């Protein structure tokens, strides 16, 4: 490190993590007076901040125990490659972002070789869901945790984990979600014959193949019970062919779109949604789109369901601390149930009004004084000043 410069190693393994990383580095550039150099693993957002990724970060976009086991040799090789490159680069700080199956293993290897290197974990691992013993173990290789959800600092403190700061979630201040929320607040009720159902089966092929056939039967039931209903199905470009193939024989063909702009427009037009459990449920909540949350575990993950500690998998429910969003898992994901649930949420019912009231509470509890990137940057710079006094 030359005087006045800061070298950051960053490792992000998902699109959402890459976006968080890009925002964090941009905030660091604004807060730090010297030059900043970054290296590690990431995607377009971090590359926009000057990163030359060690490899294509989409290799790490896997979900489910069976998928992890299938790609284990590649993951192990990438873990070694990433850790070795970080040690050789001699950065001032390591920031690992989400994807704990990969990033935490990298951090452990780096900590063994560089015990003096500060490590920051952006996105608190779901220790509140299962494997609570991970929290105290993290103190061996993580110095600070930046949390996206307001309840996580208390959980980490109770479990004996690293010092954790709630920085906030980027979705709270997302311009598109704010625009959609404003539009939906003044949106008139839709006549029954013109209602639109938003279908979101996930972005991974495994999620899509497990859920979309059930969504198709749900669409058939809804079309029979609600003549004139339409279906909106945003997806991502890499899954478009799969989605079109799986919906080719639906009696009412959905409008399939692939661009972010079209996705947000579907959020505005929809009366309610049926979606795969995940971050999109929080997007829908902040945008005030009523939703039914669904998920079907892969065959191997079913063996571990009993070890889950949480009472809900829907983030809005965790934040509100009660069941704002109805959830359907595994064999509960039944077309007839989903169809009738959608009908209740699409009309002006007590269920819909209660859900929207819950959404407002979620937004209130997630508010922060300043943007997540700025708070995260301040935590990192304070940590560097503590670990390396006189240098920063």
TrEMBL record:
InterPro entries assigned: Glyco_trans_19
EC number: 2.4.1.182
Keyword Lipid metabolism appears in the UniProt entry: yes
Pfam families, A to Z: LpxB (PF02684)
Primary role: Condensation of UDP-2,3-diacylglucosamine and 2,3-diacylglucosamine-1-phosphate to form lipid A disaccharide, a precursor of lipid A, a phosphorylated glycolipid that anchors the lipopolysaccharide to the outer membrane of the cell.
Similarity comment text for this entry: Belongs to the LpxB family.
Record protein name field: Lipid-A-disaccharide synthase
Gene expressing this chain: lpxB
């Amino acid at each position: 490190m030359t005087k006045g410069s800061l070298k950051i190693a960053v490792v992000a393994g998902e699109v959402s993590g890459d976006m968080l990383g890009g925002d964090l580095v941009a905030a660091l550039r604004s807060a730090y007076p010297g030059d900043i150099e970054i290296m590690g693993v990431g995607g377009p957002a971090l590359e926009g901040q000057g990163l030359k990724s060690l490899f294509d970060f989409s290799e790490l976009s896997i979900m489910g125990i069976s998928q992890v086991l299938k790609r284990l040799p590649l993951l192990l090789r990438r873990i070694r490659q990433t850790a070795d490159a970080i040690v050789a680069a001699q950065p001032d700080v390591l920031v690992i972002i989400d994807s704990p199956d990969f990033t935490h293993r990298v951090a452990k290897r780096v900590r063994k070789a560089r015990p003096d290197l500060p490590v920051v974990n952006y996105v608190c691992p779901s220790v509140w869901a299962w494997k609570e013993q991970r929290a105290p173990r993290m103190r061996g290789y993580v110095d600070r945790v930046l949390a996206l959800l307001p309840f996580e600092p208390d959980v980490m403190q109770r479990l004996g984990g690293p010092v954790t700061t709630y920085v906030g979630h980027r979705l709270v201040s997302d311009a598109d979600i704010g625009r959609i929320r404003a539009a939906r607040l003044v949106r008139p009720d839709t006549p029954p014959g013109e209602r639109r159902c938003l279908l979101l089966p996930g972005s991974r092929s495994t999620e899509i193949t497990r859920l979309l056939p059930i969504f198709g039967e749900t669409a058939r039931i809804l079309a029979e019970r609600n003549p004139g209903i339409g279906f909106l199905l945003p997806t991502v470009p890499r899954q478009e062919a799969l989605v079109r193939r799986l919906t080719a024989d639906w009696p009412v063909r959905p409008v399939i779109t692939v661009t972010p702009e079209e996705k947000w427009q579907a959020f505005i037009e929809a009366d309610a949604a049926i979606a795969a459990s995940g971050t999109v449920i929080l997007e829908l909540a902040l945008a005030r789109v009523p939703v039914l949350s669904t998920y079907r575990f892969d065959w191997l993950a079913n063996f571990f369901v009993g070890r889950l500690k949480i009472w809900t998998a829907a983030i809005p429910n965790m934040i509100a601390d009660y069941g704002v969003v109805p959830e359907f898992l595994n064999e509960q994901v039944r077309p007839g149930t989903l169809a009738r649930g959608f009908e209740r949420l699409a009309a002006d019912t007590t269920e819909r009004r209660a859900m929207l009231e819950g959404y407002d509470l979620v937004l209130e509890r997630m508010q922060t004084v300043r943007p997540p990137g700025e708070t995260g940057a301040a935590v990192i710079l304070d940590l560097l000043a503590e670990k390396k006094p006189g240098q920063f």
